[in-house]
Model the fold of this input.
Amino acid sequence: MRRERPDRKPRPRWRALGRAAALATCSAVSVAAAQPPEAPSSPTSASASGEAPTLQRYLDALASQRLLATEAASLATLREHLRRAEALYFDQRFGDAALFLYEIVESPAYRDFSESDDFLGAELLAAGALAELGSLRSAARYLERILRRGTGTGYFAPAYRRFVDVTLQSGDLRTGLATLDAIEGELPEDATNERRYLRARAAYDAGDLDAADATFAEITRRSRFFANAQYFRGVIATRRRDLPAAESAFCSIATTGDQERFTFYVDDRYFQVKDLAWLALGRIAHEGRRGDDAFYYYFQVPNDSERVAEALFESAFAMYEGDDYDTAVDLLDQLEARFPASPFVDEAMLLRGYVHLGRCEFEEAAQLFVRFAERFGPLVAEIDAVLESETRQRTLYADLLEEERRAETRAERAARLSEDARAAEDRDRVSSLQGLLLALLRVDPVFFQLHASVSTLDAEAARAGRLEDDLRGLATRLGGTDAPAAAAAREAYRGQTDELRQQLETAREMLSDLARNLDALRRGGAASTELRPLEEELQRHTRSVDSLGRQLTRALASAAELEVMPEVPGEDVGALLRDDARRARRFPPRVRAMRERLVDAANDASLRSLRALRERLGGALRRARIGRIDAVMGSKRRIEIQIESLAAGRFPPELVDPLRVQGLLRDDEEYWPFEGEYWSDEFEETIPLSELEDAE
Done:
């Protein structure tokens, strides 16, 4: 990559080569950052990534070949580079910012300024850019370099905080704690609270609730993690069924005034935790049958929160159980109007039916129960078909991924529409079975995390797709020629695996189409004798696809073993570039192997969620059928009471036509409809005849 300043001469070739080496390193680390969930990346094991020694070897080789200036640069040059990096960072161009920052923190020209505040700021900013790119190991390495300088530097506190964030993001809390425990000297209060929170989280994740609760309690109000710690204490108390203690912990977060001085010891997580605390308080009050308190707590969730739809639904449920049906209906109306695509809307239909049932509006309740059964009955049948078919189970995540791509296309189209049109588009999106299934499954946090990992891996693999060609091109240019390298070796390397991969993709597509056609025939009413040969053929093709998958795995492993990585002399830049090009060649098969592992894990998570969803929807459908029976029985009983009243000579007030009655009233008269009860003396008071005569 070549950059030119308008007021200077073009940069020499060594600058372009150093920047390209940093770009290669950045791309490699970005692809390697997406680790499968069962093997989380360690934020402090910098040697595992291999990135730092490689970049240092490049810089030393450039200096030995006189392609890199060995004399020290000026502090003004460092500040100019840092200023450009900061502009790129705040424009969220983290990859470009990392290139500038690599040139500062790794170049021998700036080593004389390694103790200056500008250099420390560059290291901290480099860690932030790498963390945004997902390169957690590299980010932790630069943060650890700052922490080793001790508490006397001005960048110790922000580096300590950022290291804790990177450790929490990586999930390897034990390794991060070991790094922080190795820091010598007395820590300030803020750093002590940060380490306490990390230690408490590690104990909580390990299931040691007593140790976690005790450590969370030690975090003071001056910590940004005070709200998080109190929330976890409330969760621990809830798991112990100590609801008063849980309510006290959640109240310590929710009732903190936004203008109090302790409120400013927070970061952007505070407001999310506060919303969760209000929801938790509402659930505790709901559990204790305190409907009014629950409504108050749910009402405190702000309108700009991501939890508003959840709060509306749960508050409506609390109002229903508190026999406040009018408020429950109003909350359900708001939920349906404001969040038409929310997964709570469909479950709210069942709740609305029971609200109408409680108000003795039997016809409306029966209609809602019928609509609910028509909505989710086919979905339950679709889930049963997936769970009964081994082929459909293996392609479940791929089908959901394809549905999400179609949903993204619809979302791009809806972005150009009006607000009403977008609401209609959201309703259409969840009207299909696959769209509704995806919306319900994405509520599961495990499935959502795995799905996000697959999406991140695809994006990073696309960024590093031409890395090998770029490195070989740089090596060729360094040798003085732009002639293309021979591709015979690469074709021999890729030929077998590419052919197997193409066969596997084609076979999977055919298998998916065959499974969908079989399901369509089954839904169309085809006889079991006609479907049995197709099901046997489907099983046979499934075994063939499994065999192709095993062959591809063996071919990729064999190709990686056959390629010998020779020792590269440290002073030869061209050899280093060619060596990294060979390593970059391994990226595509490693990415594909990792992606298959992530897809398999996501598919397993979606199947677990699907089974739980089937159980939940099955229970909801049973409640809908029971509610419909209750509605029919209630309507029948009301008719029986009306017949009994007519037989006794009483005309039921609810059968009186209000318009006909109002037509008999004068302008100064008012009709009061029946409100459900009569006073005991309402018809017993009599007026003497003499008083009537006097009135005349």
In short: The two ends are 108 Å apart (CA to CA). The chain has a mean pLDDT of 75. The chain is about 70% helix and 0% strand.
